Amino acid sequence: MQIKALRHKTKSLTPFAALLPMALVTLVAYLGATLWSIKVSFSSSRTMPTDTFVGLAQYTKLFENERWLLSIENIAIYTVLFILVSMVLGFLLAVFIDQKVTAEGVLRTVFLYPYAMSFVATGLIWQWMLTPGIGIEYAVRQMGFPDFVFDWIIDQDKVIYTILIATVWQTAGLVMALLLAALRGIDEEIWKAARLDGIPVWRVYVSIVIPMLAPAIATVFLLLSTTAIKLFDSVVAMTQGGPGTASEVPAKFIMDHLFGRANIALASAGAVMLLVPVIAILAPYAYARSRKARNIAHISEKHK
């Protein structure tokens, strides 16, 4: 009996043992690095970290820096448009694929393939396509439109939208895959009942289907939000933050000051501020999930 009990106990502990390396990585690499960054952001560190406490001085410098303020403005515009366009385009693609179209498997692969590429590769491809005189502009002119101009990538007011085009192209397929899986989980009887009642298709999507997709939409929103906030690779590959600093984003500002300008404290302050919106997004989601789990557990206890 003792051997059997020991085996049972060992078996129950196996999942926790398997998760231990990841838990250690999370605690040491992520949580530890976050706490260290917060500590450094309150110091006067430059090339090497120091323990000289300066309070909120680095945060004051940060928000007096025009380059940082511009990066916040850019990432705010980019994030709103990126989430909106990616979700709308991804949803439309999912609805299209859900109609049991011919060569569905091929289309799913084609739409999802860009997400398998690195953001650097995507950025370089779109940089070439958007450069005036070659790529899209050259192709359109060859089609008989010699006056066509598409110079957004060198226009300070429009360059952020070229990054939006490239990243939406890359992530829309992922949104499609997630929402398509959710659409395929909706009972066919709902569609049959809607057809019998003569309800327009668009009304079924708006009033029934989209509310039923709420958990999938929340997951997509969470993924897109965190992806947008940490935008870096595509900017470096496409514009290097230019022209000038027109396409500057917080992650690039942080990396430049960490490695290029040897200002660890200011970079850490920027990293802490970049962490704030991530927590603001994740906290309500985690709270909703935990509350839902508690409600399910409470209902289960009542029915025992």
Automatic annotation (TrEMBL):
Membrane topology: Multi-pass membrane protein
Keywords assigned: Cell membrane, Membrane, Transmembrane, Transmembrane helix, Transport
Transmembrane segments annotated in the record for this chain: 12-38, 75-97, 109-129, 159-183, 204-224, 264-287
Localisation per UniProt entry: Cell membrane
Principal location class: membrane
Family label: Belongs to the binding-protein-dependent transport system permease family.
Protein name stated in the entry: Carbohydrate ABC transporter permease
Organism: Undibacterium danionis
